[in-house]
Design goal:
2 domains, binds zinc ion, GTP Cyclohydrolase I, Chain A, domain 1, single chain, 235 residues, 9 helices
C-alpha cells in the first residue's frame, strides 16, 4: 500500500511507544556533512519587506507588452500590481529564518518516533516560476525535546515560500529539523505535482514527483526506518 494514500489529511501526528529504546548520541554526528546554508542570505533590512513590488509591477507590464497585449485595457490595468503583491507573498520566506519556528519546543523525555502525516504545502518551481504542490510526511526520533505539529508545518511553509526545487526543499526541511531540534534522526518524504509538467513541455497531468531525505538514525538504522514507513501506512 502506498504511504501517499494519506496525503491530504492535515497535521495528523502519531506517536508510538517503546519497542526500540535508543541512545541519543549527538556527538557521533558528522556535523560537517549536514551543515548547509538554510538561513536566508537575503537578510531583511531593518525589518522591511525585501520584495521590491514596484520593480515587479514594471516587469509584469513589460512581459504583457512583450506578448503583444494592450497593458492599458481594463482587464489588465490592475494585473501588474496584483502579481507584485502575490509574488511578495509567494517569496516571503526569503526574508525569514525557518529555524526560529522551532525555538519553542518542550522537553518531554519522549524518545520514540513521532510522525506527522499529510502536511499540505505549495511552492514555486525556480526553473519556470510555476507552482508545485502536494503533501509532506515527516518523522523524527526526539532526544527528549519535541515541538508542536504546527511548528513543523510552519518550517516547511517558510522554506516553500522561496523559489524552490522539490529536491532542495526536501533536504532543507530535513536539515532545519535535524540541526535545530537536534533529534536522533529525522526523515522527510515530499510528494508533489508540478504545473510545469502539466501545462507545458511533456504535459503529463497527474504525475507526481516523490523525494525523500533522512538524517541520523532514520538514515542509518533499518529498524527505525521500518517504524517510520509502517507508521505512514497506519491510520
Ligand atoms: Zn518547473
Amino acid at each position: 500500500m502506498s504511504p501517499f494514500l494519506f496525503a491530504g489529511i492535515p497535521y495528523e501526528a502519531h506517536t508510538v511507544s517503546g519497542s526500540h529504546p535508543r541512545r541519543c548520541a549527538s556527538s557521533a554526528r558528522n556535523t560537517a556533512s549536514w551543515r548547509i546554508e538554510i538561513r536566508s542570505t537575503h537578510a531583511r533590512k531593518g525589518g522591511k519587506r525585501l520584495v521590491k513590488e514596484q520593480q515587479i509591477r514594471e516587469a509584469v507590464s513589460s512581459i504583457l507588452d512583450a506578448i503583444g497585449e494592450d497593458v492599458d485595457r481594463e482587464g489588465l490595468r490592475e494585473t501588474p500590481g496584483r502579481v507584485a503583491r502575490m509574488y511578495a507573498e509567494f517569496f516571503s520566506g526569503l526574508s525569514q529564518d525557518p529555524a526560529k519556528e522551532l525555538a519553542t519546543g518542550f522537553e518531554e523525555g519522549h524518545r520514540d518516533i513521532v510522525v506527522l502525516k499529510g502536511i499540505e504545502f505549495n511552492s514555486i518551481c525556480e526553473h519556470h516560476l510555476l507552482p508545485f504542490y502536494g503533501t509532506a510526511q515527516i518523522g523524527y526520533v526526539p532526544c527528549g525535546r519535541v515541538v508542536g505539529a504546527s511548528k513543523l508545518a510552519r518550517v516547511l511553509d517558510v522554506l516553500a515560500r522561496r523559489p524552490q526545487l522539490q529536491e532542495r526543499l526536501t533536504n532543507q526541511f530535513v536539515d532545519v529539523v535535524y540541526t535545530t531540534l537536534q533529534p536522533e534522526g529525522v526523515a522527510v518524504i515530499l510528494s508533489a505535482k508540478h504545473m510545469c509538467m502539466t501545462m507545458r513541455g511533456v504535459k503529463k497531468p497527474g504525475s507526481e514527483i516523490v523525494t525523500q531525505a533522512s538524517r541520523g538514525s532514520l538514515k542509518t538504522q533499518p529498524d527505525v526506518r521500518r517504524d517510520f514507513l509502517a507508521m505512514l501506512q497506519e491510520m
